[in-house]
Amino acid sequence: MQPNDRIRIKDVKVLSDDWYVLKKTTFDIRRGDGNWQTVSRETYDRGNGATILLFNGKQKTVLLTRQFRFPAFVNGCEDGILIEACAGLLEKDDPETAIRRETEEETGYHVGSVFKLFEAYMSPGSVTEKLHFFAAEYSSIQKKSDGGGVVNHGEEIELLELGLDEALNLIETGEIQDGKTIMLLQHAKLKGLLE
Predict the structure, then answer these.
(1) pLDDT attached to residue 4
(2) What would the pLDDT profile of 105-149 be if each residue is shown by its tens digit?
(3) Ramachandran region of residue 149, left (φ > 0), alpha (ψ -120 to 50) or beta?
(4) Residue 24 contacts by C-beta under 8 Å, 6 or more apart in sequence?
(5) Distances (CA, A) of 186 to 17, 72, 135, 166
(6) Predicted pLDDT at 2
């Protein structure tokens, strides 16, 4: 049975179309036993995104960002400040172009070779976003501006340069709680990126 043979969309309602699009969809799904069941789900469509682990092989460091995240703040992060890998939405760009743009906006670095690692759905129970994961080497000569994000987007981004083991330890202490960043740091360790 093909996946599209299992789903029959019955109704789609747009609940919000302000910042991004929130929809409620009612559909029939054919269960494994052949019976049909009607269910409804809400999906939040903010577009797809890209993230990158910037690393310096000589120094054995990674470059991360620190910024305020309102959703984290309202969900128990005391100050709302998260340590993250550079990331952003694709908007209308391809993933590599988008991550190069975001890297320059957030960090001020103009990176050379960028290589794709993998793709992942980060919260598939309700968010449609697929995230494209990249890595690239950085050095001080690639620093072209102060970075810090786009002010009229409300961004105020600080850079952190850390050793890989130091960054991995921040996961253990709870100072790094961002899923994409945890995935990138663990991937770097598993693949021996900075050895």
Answers:
(1) 76
(2) 999 999 999 999 999 999 999 999 999 999 999 999 999 988 887
(3) left
(4) 12, 13, 15, 40, 41, 42
(5) 36, 22, 13, 12
(6) 54
- Indicate the residue type of 62: V
What is the C-alpha separation between 66 and 37, in angstroms, rounded?
Answer: 45
- Please report the domains of the chain, with CATH numbers, ordered by start residue: 3-45 (no CATH), 50-190 (3.90.79.10)
pLDDT of residue 1: 46
Q: Which two tokens stand for residue 171?
A: 């996961």
Distances in whole angstroms, Cα of residue 193 to Cα of each of 55, 116, 127, 165: 8, 14, 30, 12
- Residue segments in the chain with a per-residue pLDDT below the cut of 70: 1-3
8 A C-beta contact, residue 58 and residue 78: no
Which structure tokens are listed for 175?
A: 């100072």
Cβ pair 175, 79 in contact under 8 A = no
Let me know if 181 is exposed, middle or buried by CB neighbors in 10 A (0-12, 13-18, 19+).
buried
pLDDT at 169: 98
Q: What one-character DSSP code corresponds to residue 98?
A: H
Task: Label residue 117 left, alpha or beta by phi (over 0 means left) and psi (-120 to 50 means alpha).
Answer: alpha
Closest among 26, 36, 50, 49 to 6, alpha carbons compared: 36
Task: List the 7-17 sheet strands across, edge first.
Answer: 7-17, 21-30, 36-45
